[in-house]
Amino acid sequence: xxxxxxYHGAADKLAAACALISGAYAKGKALQIYxxxxxxxxxxxxALWAQAQLSFxxxxxxxxxxxxxxxIVIAEHxxxxxxxxxxxxxxxxxxxxxxxxNSLIEVVGQDEAERDAGRERVRHxxxxxxxxxxxxxxxx
Length: 140
Fold this sequence. Notes:
30% of the residues lie in helices and 29% in strands. It is built from three helices and seven strands, in the order βαβαββββαβ. The N and C termini lie far apart (30 Å).
């Protein structure tokens, strides 16, 4: 069953996501990122390139020929996701393939619409039998 790690209250959702991506990479863990809008996928891609020189995070888009060899992969479409260990969802909707992953990481900002969508996703994950753990980022 998929375990869900729900990081909420992020003042800067992109920065929080990049910190989680960096942490996964530092631990040697592969991660797929679901960013269902081109502008969001572009923002994540640019932010990962802008990391400090000594903390480069190898990543690519899901349609890259290097996607199978790269630890961090950014997908704009759910059908680009390959079943695996970890999925980071940056969208407002439930990724259709989430149950094909051992763990799902959610990052929710402070915008009310985003928070409401997050609450809906939590209800869905719980109804699907997932263990959901919460981490409050608003105090950081």
